[in-house]
């Protein structure tokens, strides 16, 4: 494999000493390397010399007229790779025997998903993406109800590789690496928010087979939606029905409760008053911030070790790693940015060492939840687990 400094490699210095190196894969998908401060990697990156077929057509969306939700129908995702071994890991650096998605060794790498739920088409031809037919025509168009309504699922889905290692999670990374990932998420949030037709950007990590993870490689994802998601729409409705500073009121309320599990200068982690899941914790900035792109260097610097402490506490609750979904809720791109506050929502169905909460009749069909663990008990258990991890590291 030829290694050289490609003229297509675009280098930018970001905050925290992170260096961004952007290029493309063999089929035109974006690939971006984010180098740790003080990285041992050189500036060169290998060219993706694979011969790849055409990218799949952009999926379609169908409107559920009873709820107003848009359902993406993405048949191209049916044949995704399932739990491959290290010699066939599609997120590992390429080797002669493994023609993976990332041509070079890396610290953190982000690339467009080969089997996306949204995209690659956008609402107009920019950045190499084809224009979409039957595209969404704004939020009013998407809010309208009617039978048989469809739209093209424009947008973008990206994979965020936290490490070149075959196994692990965000919580197994170093503070330096966690800081690089946070910088990458902030940078991608800003970039994706500028793409035509994007209404909301959602970074997240799925961890564990019980959640449905198909790759053991430490990674997360970013979805850039052509609509405001149902969860966020409900949140905006609640803000409209209460007060513009609802998130600050929630934070003030939680900070005086027994549900706080971690607190720093810029962030507080707490089990919410009405937690649904056996394990649920929110991590919220102390000032109003709409998304990760708007956080300061000081906030990102504190977030890296605080987030790792939280995740390692989650894993210390039991003898085996805990499955979870780590969801970064961000304000929509075009509405609610002065009121909807960035926050992490980490949830796990694990309600015991060998027990999981399954969403059955009431929760799955009626969206009516019943919690088996009180939020106060959940917070106490998590605080004790965090204390055990801190005692080990001291």
UniProtKB/TrEMBL annotation:
Record pathway: Carbohydrate metabolism; galactose metabolism
Active site: 219 (tele-ump-histidine intermediate)
Ranges of residues in domain Galactose-1-phosphate uridyl transferase N-terminal: 62-228
A Pfam family assignment: GalP_UDP_tr_C
InterPro entries hit by this protein: GalP_UDPtransf1, GalP_UDPtransf1_His-AS, GalP_Utransf_C, GalP_Utransf_N, HIT-like_sf
Positions of the UniProt region annotated as Disordered: 36-55
Record keywords: Carbohydrate metabolism, Galactose metabolism, Metal-binding, Nucleotidyltransferase, Transferase, Zinc
Cofactors required: Zn(2+)
Catalytic reaction equation(s): alpha-D-galactose 1-phosphate + UDP-alpha-D-glucose = alpha-D-glucose 1-phosphate + UDP-alpha-D-galactose
Gene3D superfamilies from the UniProt entry: HIT-like (3.30.428.10)
PANTHER family per the UniProt record, alphabetical: GALACTOSE-1-PHOSPHATE URIDYLYLTRANSFERASE
Protein name: Galactose-1-phosphate uridylyltransferase
Lineage: Bacteria, Bacillati, Actinomycetota, Actinomycetes, Micrococcales
């Amino acid at each position: 494999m030829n290694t050289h400094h490609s003229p297509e490699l675009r280098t930018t210095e970001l905050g925290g000493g992170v260096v961004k190196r952007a290029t493309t894969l063999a089929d035109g998908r974006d690939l971006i390397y984010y180098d740790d401060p003080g990285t041992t990697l050189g500036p060169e990156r290998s060219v993706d010399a694979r011969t790849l077929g055409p990218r799949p057509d952009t999926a379609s969306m169908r409107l559920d007229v009873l709820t107003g939700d848009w359902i993406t129908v993405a048949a191209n995702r049916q044949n995704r790779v399932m739990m491959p071994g290290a010699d066939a890991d599609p997120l590992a650096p390429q080797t002669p025997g493994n023609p993976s998605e990332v041509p070079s060794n890396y610290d953190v790498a982000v690339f467009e998903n080969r089997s996306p739920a949204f995209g690659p088409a956008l609402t107009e031809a920019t950045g190499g993406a084809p224009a979409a037919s039957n595209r969404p025509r704004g939020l009013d168009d998407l809010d309208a109800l009617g039978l048989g309504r469809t739209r093209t699922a424009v947008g973008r889905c990206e994979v965020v590789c936290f490490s070149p290692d075959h196994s692990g999670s965000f919580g197994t990374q170093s503070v330096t690496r966690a800081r690089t990932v946070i910088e990458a998420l902030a940078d991608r949030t800003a970039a994706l928010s500028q793409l035509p037709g994007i209404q909301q950007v959602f970074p997240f990590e799925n961890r564990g087979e019980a959640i449905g993870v198909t790759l053991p490689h430490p990674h997360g994802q970013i979805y850039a939606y052509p609509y405001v998601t149902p969860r966020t729409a409900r949140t905006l409705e609640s803000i409209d029905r209460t007060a513009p500073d609802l998130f600050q009121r929630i934070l003030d309320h939680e900070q005086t409760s027994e549900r706080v599990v971690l607190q720093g200068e810029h962030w507080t982690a707490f089990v919410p008053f009405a937690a649904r899941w056996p394990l649920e914790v929110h991590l919220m900035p102390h000032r109003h911030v709409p998304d990760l792109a708007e956080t300061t260097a000081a906030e990102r610097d504190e977030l890296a070790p605080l987030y790792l402490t939280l995740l390692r506490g989650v894993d210390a609750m039991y003898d085996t790693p805990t499955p979870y979904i780590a969801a970064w809720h961000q304000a929509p791109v075009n509405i609610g940015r002065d009121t909807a506050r960035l926050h992490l929502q980490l949830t796990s169905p694990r309600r015991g060492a060998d027990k999981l909460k399954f969403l059955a009749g009431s929760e799955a069909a009626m969206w009516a939840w019943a919690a088996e663990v009180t939020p106060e008990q959940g917070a106490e258990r998590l605080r004790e687990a965090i204390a055990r991890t801190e005692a080990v590291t001291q």
